[in-house]
Each structure stands twice: as structure tokens, then as C-alpha cells.
Amino acid sequence: MQEFRGKVAVVTGAGSGIGRGLALRWAAEGMRVAMIDIDDAALQETAGLMAAASPDAPQLARRGDVSHAFDVEAFADDVFDLWGQVDLLCNNAGVFLGGYLWDRHVEDLEHILGVNLWGILHGIRAFVPRMIAQDTEGHIVNTASVSGIFGSPLAGPYNISKFAAFAATETLAGDLVLSGSKLRASVLCPGIVSTNIATRALHRPEETGRPLTDDQRFVTEMLIDLVPTGLDPAEVAGIVLDGVRAEDFLILTHGHHAESITSRAAELTTRALPSVVAYTCPVRGPSPLQGGVAGGNTRIVAPPIAVHRG
Ligand SMILES: NC(=O)c1ccc[n+]([C@@H]2O[C@H](COP(=O)([O-])OP(=O)(O)OC[C@H]3O[C@@H](n4cnc5c(N)ncnc54)[C@H](O)[C@@H]3O)[C@@H](O)[C@H]2O)c1
Predict the structure, then answer these.
(1) Rounded to 5 degrees, what are φ and ψ at 34?
(2) Nearest ligand 1 atom to alpha carbon 192
């Protein structure tokens, strides 16, 4: 996709973090921007920032839950009714949930797959058929994570949802090419970005009434320490813009992750358990998760193992 001015962008999870960064960038590029978020106050804040920074950019903001097909379909209907087209779809809304996989509550697993995987599938089903029918150039960007490429310990629910998001996007991109569509698709795999994702995960017990387990608290608090060291969402938005222009399938935010992909592939060919990726930007130092698991080089400080049955 080369032309952005006057086109229509859709961003899910636009109330905060990367979604807000993308929405503000698309408006600055002269696009009309439709936004959805489950957090209406946060969404209104983004809308206000957009009105201030890009006063001429038409915008539509809807509260909705991307894990509910009905909300996403109603949102898509609103966007097509208002503007008659969608050119850039960013399925971005996501949540973090970690902890030992064997100790996770079914409700938590359903929650994270509902947002991080079903949110993307609902977005694809609600928007892509009409985008294909437009028969114009366009692009879909699904936000996965480096956790969609590397399966780090203590983040099983998140990793599963992000590997699935990656698979959905790779398949979508192939299907679009195979079917002769003018649309292209990219998977955004950020490393650490300075957003509210970890803080929101810490507040999950307020929704479930179940306290975080020790292992969950350990990984969530580690993420809370790491996240402020991450990239600015505005910088990520610029990287996404470049990736969409270049029609890159894989959009990485940290260059060293490309080397980690090579290492992972090499390790897998030896049938070994792949080493754990360093999450952080190299200029700011390695993350506590850096180091090998299989090679006896692990530097993970494991939390006390506690068994919680919800
Ligand atoms: N921050 C990072 O380091 C990082 C790294 C890799 C990938 N990601 C991914 O980036 C995406 C954006 O996350 P972020 O870091 O900006 O976090 P964030 O918490 O700052 O923003 C996420 C937004 O999504 C919204 N949201 C959550 N559940 C929703 C739902 N069910 N329906 C609609 N909106 C919902 C939240 O209200 C919030 O506004 C996520 O998919 C996340 O997994 C983030």
C-alpha cells in the first residue's frame, strides 16, 4: 500500500499503547481513522489527542470488545456505512497473561485467546470480505509479538495466543496472494514497547476475583519493570508505516530479533529446545529472560513453585 491520504484506517485497541500510536500516526498521514476499544475512557483520550494533533482527520470511536463477534461486526458495519471503504485494518487489541501453563484457569485461557486470537479472527471475518470486494490496494496488520515466534517460559497463555496470531496472519497473507487479491497482510511482532499492557495484567484479579498466583505475579512484575524501557509507541507506528509501504510480511521493531530467528531455526534443526530470546532493546541491556534454556545457560530466576487450583 503506497497511498494513505484520504484512505480509511481501522485500529482495534486504540485506547492505549501501540494502538493509540498507530491511530495517531494514521491520522497524521491524512487518513480517516476508525477506532475501537473496550476501555471507553482511554478511547476518548485517544480521540482527544487525535483531534488536537490532526484536527482535520475524520474519526470514529466505538466502545467494543473484540473478543465478541457481534461487537466487531457492528463496528465494521458502522465504518462501511459511514465511509464506504476500509483500506488499512490493524487488528491490534491484546492483553498479557502469564504463569505456568499447567496452573492456568480455563477462564483465563479463554480470555486471552478471546482477545488475542479471536479478536483478530473476528476482525478478518468482519472486514476482509468487503475489503477484497473493493478491489483496491489495501493492507491488514495483525499485532502478534516476538512471543509469536519465541516461546519463552512463564508466558504460555500469551505465547499460544501470539503463535496463533502469527499463523492466522501468515495464512491470510498467503490466501490473499493465492486468490489474486490486491490486499497484503503483515504480522507485527514487537519486542518490548512502553505501554500499559503489564499494568493491565496486574489488575486482572479485579475482573476475575482470583488473586494472581506467585508465578503470574513474578512474570507480570518483571514485565512491569521491563516495559518502561521499551520503544515509544509512536516509534513503532513509524516502523509499521515503513513495513506496510514496503509490503513486508514480518514487521519487527528490534533488529536483533532477526538474528534470534536465525538462531532459533538453527537450534530446531538440531532438535534442541530453542534458547529464550532477549526481549529488550540491546542498547538498554538484556532482559532477565535472556539466556539458553536447553544449553544449561539459563539465567531465569524462577519464582517459587506453588500449585493453585481455581
Ligand atoms: N507492549 C509490548 O511490549 C508489546 C510487545 C509485543 C506485542 N504487544 C502487543 O501489542 C498490542 C497492543 O498492546 P499494548 O502493549 O499497546 O497494550 P495496552 O494495554 O497499552 O493497549 C492495549 C489496548 O487494547 C485494549 N483492549 C484490551 N482488550 C480488549 C478487548 N477485548 N476489546 C477491545 N480492546 C481491548 C485495551 O483497553 C488497551 O487500550 C497487543 O496485541 C500486545 O499483545 C505489545
Answers:
(1) -105, 130
(2) 3
Residue-range domain boundaries for the chain: 8-284
Find out whether 188 and 143 touch, Cβ atoms under 8 Å: yes
Q: What is the pLDDT along the chain (310 residues), one digit of tens a residue?
A: 999 999 999 999 999 999 999 999 999 999 999 999 999 999 999 999 999 999 999 999 999 999 999 999 999 999 999 999 999 999 999 999 999 999 999 999 999 999 999 999 999 999 999 999 999 999 999 999 999 999 988 999 999 999 999 999 999 999 999 999 999 999 999 999 999 999 999 999 999 999 999 999 999 999 999 999 999 999 999 999 999 999 999 999 999 999 999 999 999 999 999 887 554 433 334 444 433 332 223 334 444 444 333 3
Give the number of the atom of ligand 1 that is nearest the alpha carbon of residue 143. Answer: 41
Q: How many helices (H) and strands (E) does the chain have?
A: 11, 7
Minimal-distance CA residue to ligand 1 atom 7 = 145
The verdict on whether 158 is a catalytic residue reads yes
- Output the CA 94–ligand 1 centroid distance in Å: 4
CATH of domain 8-284: 3.40.50.720
Residues with CB under 6 A from ligand 1: 12-13, 15-19, 37-39, 42, 65-67, 92-95, 115, 143, 145, 190, 192-193, 195-197, 200, 227, 230
Tell whether pTM > 0.85. yes
Distance of CA 261 to the CA centre of its chain: 19
State the alpha helices, DSSP H only, in the chain. Answer: 17-28, 40-53, 69-83, 106-113, 119-134, 156-178, 197-202, 204-208, 214-226, 233-246, 256-269
* Interacting residues of 149 by C-beta distance below 8 A, sequence separation 6+: 163, 166, 189, 257, 260, 261, 264, 277
Grid cell for residue 262: 536465525
